């Protein structure tokens, strides 16, 4: 199986191919730097993303507070995380940077105050 | 009956119009330079569009840290408050008047009434507006469920309301792609992203979103019609050829309850045009000199009102520069220079600003290319400047620093071109 990516580590945007056989990376082609190679391998083995959403807040100036995960989350766990976040409700005051919840050891941080 | 209240008159050195990153950075800098400044914004909160851009990707240059939009905005707002900058939200500027170089008037409405402010200089940082469905030739029923990307973003990320369940997005620039992710994350089905050009308009890291959520991208296609009873029910898509003409017989319908238009931004310059500020058709913003002063002396401009930026960092940088310009203007009663060097667009340069350079200061030129190219050189032959670039794309703004000494080498004009290396 060959996975093809446009690298996003820097603006060069190399076209990288990762060849995987029996769940193992066999060859990586098309990268121009080690960071690009590492990124592409990570994308195949366990892609991760920072997740953001908004949570309803009572008594704030705006009806919601925006939040993000303090670290990237494995891609396949995102739907589960979103279902967890959808149940949350907050009360003002909330400050930027405040940890408003935690999910499987991952901190959920407010990015807007209320 | 109470007597008619008189319009209160306020007086400042400089009025900043717009409380987004450009306006906040300008107001902060103006205050730091010792000017008496008032910042006005029509929203109920500071930050411009940043509080609704809840994704990461902001501030790597300016704060040397990757922040979300609201985080970037709150850092600037905090500094503004620390410095005691006067600002008013829910304050909508209706009109600007230019009586003389050092006498300008800004009229604004607010919940406490109408005010006029006299100022010596104005920094205009009112951002951009989004292109609407009718501007890109979509016809059909007048139904609910048609939004610009920014409207949908405000609904979702400020008010917490999902605008629809089955969504078609027009435009694959960064804004369209980022919205596709937000819809998909929140559980809506993004049925298609439809892009007129043969390549996606956004950065590679945002194009990846489509793969993450299995969203189909139709390149060389356009949405031409929307139908529904009361609410959007389906949209008609048609293929285009290399000259962007519709291919007969290629049309098909996509069922959706929502159509989101992300077809680009246009600098918001109506009020400037009214007082005779010259507009550059290429940027859509004002013609400016290296202090970001428009062709009306004492009126400065920064951020997306100047030209559409893709990085907030450059927007804030322009705000600071405009504030320095305002300071110089007020102190000297005008910005003078022995001679202006005109910046001209050469090969594969679609737009560029500032338009006139004095050679008194180092400057940043901001430019965009017309088409993607690899292995290029950005050249200014008149002064022997060369810069190698591995790739250039219309979606990525190029920023180039020129030193005063280099500019002084130019005669009356300086042509910037992007050519094969
Ligand atoms: C969806 C989206 C995603 C983005 N993603 C990124 C990213 O990942 N990284 C990045 O660096 N940049 C990103 N940007 C770009 C960046 O956000 C903008 O370039 C920047 O916010 C523009 O700032 P501004 O101050 O010029 O305008 P704005 O933020 O638009 O502020 C203009 C302000 O002027 C006010 N105003 C207008 N008219 C009047 C009036 N008559 N009276 C009073 N007030 C008025 C408005 O209310 C508004 O608050 C993104 C933009 C969008 C839309």
Describe this structure in words.
- The mean pLDDT of chain A is 93.
- In chain A, a hairpin with a 2-residue loop joins strand 9 and strand 10.
- With 114 residues, chain A is α+β, with helices and mostly antiparallel strands.
- Chain A has 2 helices and 10 strands; from the N terminus they run E-E-E-H-E-E-E-E-H-E-E-E.
- The N and C termini of chain A lie far apart (48 Å).
- With 421 residues, chain B is α/β, with parallel strands linked by helices.
- Helices cover 21% and strands 36% of the residues of chain B.
- Chain B is built from 8 helices and 28 strands.
- Chain B has helices spanning 21-32, 69-82, 149-157, 174-185, 204-212, 270-274, 312-332, 404-408, and strands spanning 9-17, 37-40, 56-58, 67-68, 86-88, 92-100, 103-110, 113-124, 128-130, 139-140, 146-148, 166-170, 189-194, 217-218, 221-229, 231-239, 252-255, 258-261, 265-267, 299-301, 341-345, 349-353, 356-357, 363-369, 373-380, 385-392, 398-402, 413-420.
- In chain B, strands 1, 2, 5, 6, 7, 8 and 20 form a 7-stranded mixed β-sheet that branches. Chain B has a 5-stranded parallel β-sheet with strand order 11-18-12-13-14. In chain B, strands 23-21-28-25-26 form a 5-stranded mixed β-sheet, with no helix packed on it.
- In chain B, helix 1 (21-32) runs parallel beside helix 7, helix 3 (149-157) packs parallel to helix 4 and helix 4 packs parallel to helix 5 (204-212).
- At the A-B interface, strand 5 and strand 6 of A face strand 4, helix 2 and helix 5 of B.
- Chain A: Residues 6-32 form the 4Fe-4S Mo/W bis-MGD-type domain.
- Chain A: Keywords: Iron, Iron-sulfur, Metal-binding.
Layout of helices and strands, plus pairs?
The complex is a heterodimer of chains A (114) and B (421).
Chain A: E1 2-6, E2 15-21, E3 24-29, H1 34-45, E4 48-49, E5 52-58, E6 64-69, E7 73-74, H2 78-86, E8 90-91, E9 99-103, E10 106-110
Parallel strand pairs in A: 5-8
Antiparallel strand pairs in A: 1-2, 2-3, 4-7, 5-6, 6-10, 9-10
Chain B: E1 9-17, H1 21-32, E2 37-40, E3 56-58, E4 67-68, H2 69-82, E5 86-88, E6 92-100, E7 103-110, E8 113-124, E9 128-130, E10 139-140, E11 146-148, H3 149-157, E12 166-170, H4 174-185, E13 189-194, H5 204-212, E14 217-218, E15 221-229, E16 231-239, E17 252-255, E18 258-261, E19 265-267, H6 270-274, E20 299-301, H7 312-332, E21 341-345, E22 349-353, E23 356-357, E24 363-369, E25 373-380, E26 385-392, E27 398-402, H8 404-408, E28 413-420
Parallel strand pairs in B: 1-2, 1-8, 2-5, 8-20, 10-15, 11-18, 12-13, 12-18, 13-14, 21-28
Antiparallel strand pairs in B: 3-4, 6-7, 7-8, 9-19, 15-16, 16-17, 21-23, 22-24, 24-27, 25-26, 25-28
Bound molecules: flavin-adenine dinucleotide.
């Amino acid at each position: 199986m060959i996975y093809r990516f446009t690298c996003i580590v820097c603006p060069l945007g190399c076209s990288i191919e990762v060849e995987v056989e029996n769940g193992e990376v066999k060859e990586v082609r098309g990268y121009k730097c080690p960071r690009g190679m590492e990124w592409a391998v990570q994308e195949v083995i366990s892609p991760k993303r920072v997740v953001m959403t908004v949570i309803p807040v009572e008594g704030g100036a705006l009806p919601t507070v925006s939040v993000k995960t303090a670290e990237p989350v494995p891609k396949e766990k995102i739907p589960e995380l979103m279902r967890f976040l959808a149940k949350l409700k907050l009360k003002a005051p909330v400050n930027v940077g405040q940890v408003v919840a935690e999910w499987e050891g991952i901190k959920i941080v407010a990015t807007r105050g209320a | 009956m109470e007597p008619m209240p008189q319009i209160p008159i306020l007086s400042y050195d400089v009025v900043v119009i717009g409380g987004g990153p450009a306006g906040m950075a300008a107001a902060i800098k103006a205050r730091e330079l010792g000017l008496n400044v008032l910042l006005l914004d029509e929203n109920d909160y500071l930050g411009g569009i940043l509080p609704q851009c809840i994704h990461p990707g902001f501030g790597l240059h300016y704060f040397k840290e990757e922040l979300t939009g609201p985080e970037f905005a709150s850092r600037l707002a905090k500094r503004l408050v620390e410095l005691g900058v006067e600002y008013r939200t829910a304050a909508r500027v209706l009109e600007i008047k230019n009586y003389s170089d050092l006498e300008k008037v800004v009229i604004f409405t607010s919940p406490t009434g109408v005010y006029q402010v006299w100022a010596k200089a104005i920094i205009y940082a009112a951002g951009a507006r989004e292109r609407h469905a009718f501007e890109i030739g979509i016809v059909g029923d007048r139904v609910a469920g048609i939004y610009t990307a920014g409207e949908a973003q405000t609904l979702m990320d400020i008010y917490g309301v999902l605008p629809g369940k089955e969504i078609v997005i027009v435009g694959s620039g960064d804004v369209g792609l980022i919205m596709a992710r937000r819809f998909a994350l929140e559980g809506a089905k993004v049925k298609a992203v439809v892009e007129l050009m043969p390549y996606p308009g956004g950065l590679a890291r945002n194009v990846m979103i489509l793969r993450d959520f299995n969203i189909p991208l139709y390149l060389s296609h356009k949405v031409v019609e929307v139908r529904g009873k009361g609410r959007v029910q389906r949209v008609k898509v048609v293929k285009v050829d290399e000259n962007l003409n519709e291919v007969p017989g290629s049309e098909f319908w996509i069922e959706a309850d929502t159509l989101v238009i992300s077809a680009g931004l246009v600098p918001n310059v109506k009020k400037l045009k009214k007082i005779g500020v010259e507009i550059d058709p290429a940027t859509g913003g004002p013609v400016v000199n290296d202090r970001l002063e428009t062709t009306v002396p004492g009126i400065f401009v920064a951020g997306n009102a100047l030209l559409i930026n893709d990085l907030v960092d450059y927007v804030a940088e322009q705000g600071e520069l405009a504030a320095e310009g305002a300071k110089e203007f007020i102190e000297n009663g005008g910005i003078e220079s022995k001679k202006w060097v005109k910046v001209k667009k050469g090969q594969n340069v679609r737009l560029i600003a500032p338009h006139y350079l004095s050679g008194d200061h180092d400057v940043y030129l901001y430019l965009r290319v017309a088409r993607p190219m690899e292995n290029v050189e950005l050249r200014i032959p008149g002064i022997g400047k060369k810069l190698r670039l591995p790739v250039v794309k219309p979606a990525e703004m190029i920023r180039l620093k020129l030193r005063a000494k280099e500019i002084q080498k130019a005669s009356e004009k300086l042509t910037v071109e992007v050519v094969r290396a």
